[in-house]
């Protein structure tokens, strides 16, 4: 262990994992947006966009899965605070280059800690749901570029990916 305390927020002075104490933080409006994409064969994309596959409208199911995942983030990510989310929006649209689908998830709360993990979880689970529902047509799909796009609120202020 280094002599100075870790800069990692989930590690205490003794080097042990802990859940961060947010009780002294002010409640503020917080928002985070995350994005990811799944690259697939043109035929698979056409199937996904048609909404008429054997499993129905895979984009609608993925959007619901992402929304549900955001609400369960604290059950999935160790030491993540359970939050009362005020809004979750998950959208699945074709990528600009038409090589697959892009998921964008935006999560809001009014609380003492941010919602970055909820947005990233929503996007990731929506992408995994798309893979699951389309894998019979295309096992070569690739999930990529899952990243936080922006966050606002809280003591650390606003941040936007350049």
UniProtKB/TrEMBL annotation:
Q: What EC class is this?
A: lyase
Role noted for this protein: Catalyzes the conversion of (8S)-3',8-cyclo-7,8-dihydroguanosine 5'-triphosphate to cyclic pyranopterin monophosphate (cPMP).
* Self-association and partners: Homohexamer; trimer of dimers.
Supply the Pfam families for this chain.
Answer: MoaC
Organism, by scientific name, is Brevundimonas goettingensis
Q: Which residues bind substrate?
A: 79-81, 117-118
The catalytic activity of this protein is classed by the Enzyme Commission as 4.6.1.17
Q: Which residues form the Molybdopterin cofactor biosynthesis C (MoaC) domain?
A: 19-154
Please report which protein family the annotation says this sequence is part of: Belongs to the MoaC family.
What are this entry's molecular-function GO terms? cyclic pyranopterin monophosphate synthase activity
The cross-references to NCBIfam families, in alphabetical order and at most eight, read: moaC, PRK09364.1
Enumerate the catalysed reactions: (8S)-3',8-cyclo-7,8-dihydroguanosine 5'-triphosphate = cyclic pyranopterin phosphate + diphosphate
Q: Where is the active site?
A: 132
Q: In which pathway does it act?
A: Cofactor biosynthesis; molybdopterin biosynthesis
Which Gene3D superfamilies is this protein grouped with? Molybdopterin cofactor biosynthesis C (MoaC) domain
What are the entry keywords?
A: Lyase, Molybdenum cofactor biosynthesis
Q: Which domain of life is it from?
A: Bacteria
- State the protein's name: Cyclic pyranopterin monophosphate synthase
């Amino acid at each position: 262990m280094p002599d100075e305390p870790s800069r990692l927020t989930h590690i205490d002075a003794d080097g042990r994992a802990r859940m961060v104490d947010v009780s002294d933080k002010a409640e503020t409006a917080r928002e985070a947006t995350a994005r990811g994409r799944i690259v697939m064969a043109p035929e698979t994309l056409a199937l996904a966009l048609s909404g008429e596959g054997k499993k129905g409208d895979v984009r609608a199911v993925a959007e619901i899965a992402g929304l549900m995942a955001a609400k369960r983030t604290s059950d999935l990510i160790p030491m993540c605070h359970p939050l009362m989310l005020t809004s979750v929006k998950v959208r699945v649209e074709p990528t600009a280059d038409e090589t697959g689908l892009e998921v964008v998830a935006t999560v809001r709360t009014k609380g003492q800690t941010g919602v970055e993990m909820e947005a990233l979880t929503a996007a990731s689970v929506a992408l995994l749901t798309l893979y699951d529902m389309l894998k019979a047509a295309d096992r070569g799909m690739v999930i990529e570029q899952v990243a936080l796009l922006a966050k606002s609120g809280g003591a650390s202020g606003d941040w936007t990916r350049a």
